[in-house]
# Entry
Amino acid sequence: MERAGGTDDQAAAASSPPPPPQFSLAGCAAALEAALSGRCCTPGRIWFKESSERNLRARDWIAPRGALSKLYQRGQGSRGLELLTVSHLRAILLADHLAEALRQQGCVVRATPNLPQNTAIWNFLKLLRVNWASTLQTTSSDGRVSYFKKILSESIYTQLRKSEAPTDPGHNALPKDVLFKVHLRQFVKEKELGGYDTNLDVALVQEEALRQIAELQRTILQSQADSEQCLVIHVVGCEEEFQQQKIDLLWQILNAGMDQVTQRHLVCGPVRIAGENSHLNAVQYFQFRRSQMQEASVMKYGSLVQGDSWAEIISSMTSATIRFELLATAHRSPLNLDLTEAVNISTKGTRSGAFVMYNCARLATLFDRFNKSVQQGLYPKFPETSQLNFSALQEEGEWLLLYNYIIPFRDVLCQTTQSLSSAKGIHLTVNTETVCKFLVNLGMDFSSYYNRVHILGEPLEHLFNQMFARLQLMKALREVFHTALATLHIPPPSQL
# Structure
C-alpha cells in the first residue's frame, strides 16, 4: 500500500491594485500562501477565490497548490508533521486497518513508504498503534532512479528539458528541478486505459516522484518472492487522488516489472471539522481528544487517574476513539467531525470507540473476579466444554449474542475485503467500516445483556452449570472483541 503527499486542487486569487511589474513568482507564491492561510492583513489588499472562468482577467493568477508548496520553505522535502492533516490521518488508519484485515486472511501485505525510526511522524503513528513499515537506515535508490531516468529519456512520451530551451524571451522554460515533461494523456489514449481523471495531461517529473516509484518497485520485488501476482493499493485522500494517478501512469510508462502487477486506488472522502477547532492538524486533533479522555477519566475515577498504567489506558482509549471516529464511515464518503469544546467523549456514548473499549474491559473484569473467586474456593475450576449443558442458556439476549455476533464473526471479517477480487476499473471500494459498526452494535447488545443478567451467581452447586455455560459464551464473546480490535491495532483493555 502506498500513499503520497501533494495536492492538485486549484486556488485563484486577485489583488487590487495589480502587482507592480517587478513582482517575483516566489513573492507572489508567499503572498498567496499568506492569504490562503488567513495571515494576509495588508491594508488595501483584498483576496478572494474566483471560480468563474469568465471573470478571470489578465491580472489574475491561478496555480496548483502542489506547485506552490515547492516555492516556500514549508513545502520542501518530505511533508512535515505539522502539515499532517486529519484527512491524511484517515487514509493512514484506513490503510493500516485494511492491511491487518488482509493479513488475518492469510495475505502477505507490505506497506510503503518506509518510515525512518525515531522521526516525528514515526513516533506519532506509534502513539496511535499504527503498524507501519519502518527502518533504522534509509535504503539508497540512486541506482534504480538513474535507470528510470534513462528509460524516460528514451520514451516516446517524454519531452526532454533540452528541447525546452526558450526560442524567445517570452517563452516560459521548465523549472530547474523538473527532469522531464511526460505526456500522460497520450499514453492513456494509446493504451486505451479507462477510469483515470480526464484532466490528466502532462506530468512534470521531479526526482522525488522517481524515488517514490523506486520504493514501490523495491516493495514489489520483495512481494514477488511470495506471490507472482501483486495487487498495489494506493490509499489516498481525495485531495491526493489526482497526483497519485500521475504516479500510477508514470510507473506504467517506466514498465519496471509491471507485467504481474495490478494497481487500484482506494480514495478517502474529505474530513470536515466543525466549530472553533476546524484548523486543527492531525497531531492537535490527537492532543484534543487525549485531553478530553483525561478529563472524562478524572471525572469518573478521581484521584485514581495517575501513574504509568493510567497514562497507557488513556492513550489506548484515545487511539480507539480516533480510529472509530475516522473509520466508522464508508471511506469514500465525507466525514464530519464535531470538535467543539461542548462535545465531550465518554464511555456512555454508545457510538464511540470508548464505549466499545469499556464493554471489552467489563469482560476482563468479569473473568478476573471469577478467577479470584476460584482461588478463594467459592467456585470450582472451569470444567471442560464437553461437560457443559448449554440448555441452561434460556435468555433471549444470550442467543442474540451467539447468532448475531459469535457465529457470523468470521464472515464479517471477510466482508471487509471481499470486493478486492471483483473490482473493475482503477478504483477500489472496500467495506472498511464493517468492523467498527460490528463492534459498536456488539457493545450495545452485550451491555444490555450484562446490565440485566448476573453471570456470576451465588456459590451454590445447582447454579454452577448455568454460570459456566454463560461464562463459556462470554469467553467466545471476548475472543470476538479481541480479534476485531486487533484488526484496528487496538490492544484490549484489562481494566477501565
